[in-house]
């Protein structure tokens, strides 16, 4: 779409999310139908933003309905107060946590501030970019799966 959730859980879940969730599920269904032995789903999202928290919860809910027996493994970045840029991040995280507890089988929460600290202290990256953070998270995920 051309519009984001404006860092608001409600917009990601009830407004913008409702408009695109069926399209996302149709594309997911097409991919799942091409699998010979679908084990489950890996969901990557944030707890702080509107799309990650609101739409992420909606998607988990709908995946539970459509693929109830399939495993849903969640990798979520939890907001940190020290580096927060959005006032409503704590509210988004609380609302999103309910969906996570209800609909995911396994959840790995990653502290956003810890990612930044690892980049600064251990990797000598003074101003980490999203690419740096994503690569670090990918290393963590590859050691788990």
Walk me through this protein's architecture.
By secondary structure, the chain is an alpha/beta fold. It is built from 5 helices and 3 strands, in the order αβαβαβαα. 57% of the residues lie in helices and 14% in strands. α3 links the parallel β2 (71-78) and β3 (106-111). α1 (9-33) crosses α2 and α2 (50-66) packs parallel to α3. The protein is globular and about 45 Å long. The model has no long low-confidence stretch (mean pLDDT 91).
Provide the descriptors you would attach to this structure in a database record.
alpha/beta; 5 helices; globular; 145 residues
Largest sheet: 3 strands, parallel
Helix content: 55-70%
Shape: globular
Distance between the termini: 31 Å
Quaternary organisation: single chain
Individual helix count: 5
Sheet-strand content, in percent, reads 5-15%
Topology pattern, helix = H, strand = E: HEHEHEHH
Mean pLDDT over all positions: 91
Q: In which order are the strands of the major sheet placed?
A: 1-2-3
Radius of gyration: 16 Å
The parts where pLDDT drops under 50 for at least 5 residues are none
Helical/strand content category = alpha/beta
Could you tell me the number of beta strands?
A: 3
